[in-house]
Amino acid sequence: MIKQAIIPLAGLGTRLLPLTSVFPKELLPINGKPGLEYILDECIDAGIKEIIFIISDKKKLIKKYFYNDKFYKKIIKKKKDKRITKAYKKIQNYKKKIKFVYQNKPLGTGDAVLKTKKYISESHFLMLFPDDLIMKKNCSKEMILLHKKFKCSVMASFKVKKKDVSRWGIYSVNKKINKKNFLIKDVIEKPKINSAPSTNAVIGRYILPKEIFKKLEKQTKGIGNEIHITDAIRKLIKEDFKFIGHNFAGKYLDCGTMNGYINSSLEISKL
Ligand code: G1P
Known about the structure:
By secondary structure, the chain is of the alpha/beta class. The chain is about 35% helix and about 25% strand.
């Protein structure tokens, strides 16, 4: 079973400036709730027991959000407000499951994942990107079921427009398993339109094998001068590790760009 999840949170969030100049993007409210709490709720509902946050010194406010006990206790004693007590209990419940590791140099997602190496105890683990919200259906839960059935790695995916392929990791299909699941042949990080092998984009949910760490230790920088998780996954696929691309059923909301962030609150309020 998949019991551990990791969440990279050390990114600078420059696409959301000025909102992120002093405040971590993952704590920005989306329809009245910090974006990160949607991700945590998805993990917990999918049966995850331990969640590892990869933060940086610049993003210490994220830790503070979960460790503000003194403040809450004082306010609750004084105000006896049920709503605040409930909110605090929820945060305490999250806190029990969270560990923190640090990535102080923004070298890329691959480097962020490598920081969690010594904490991963199972054969596979889940990774979620907080920019990618998937609503209505629990994508992590669907992927964990697939992993159980096929005993392999899984990446969430959907079809994008050809003109947008350079924004995503793009994979080619080896074999169609069924309508929603595909055995992956190869994956390329942010290809040029002309060299993209398809329009199947990888979205921010991954079930990865522990062997990824060995690849990441040797992984050199790729496109944009960053160490990409996609490049390490590619090496595993070349060594016959099975990866399934899973076209998820839920509603995707891209919260990492200004337009996407604004739109996500509107969309969630309509659900
Ligand atoms: C990352 C991955 C990319 C993936 C995307 C999903 O890119 O590198 O392969 O398609 O997340 O959101 P980023 O959004 O960090 O540029």
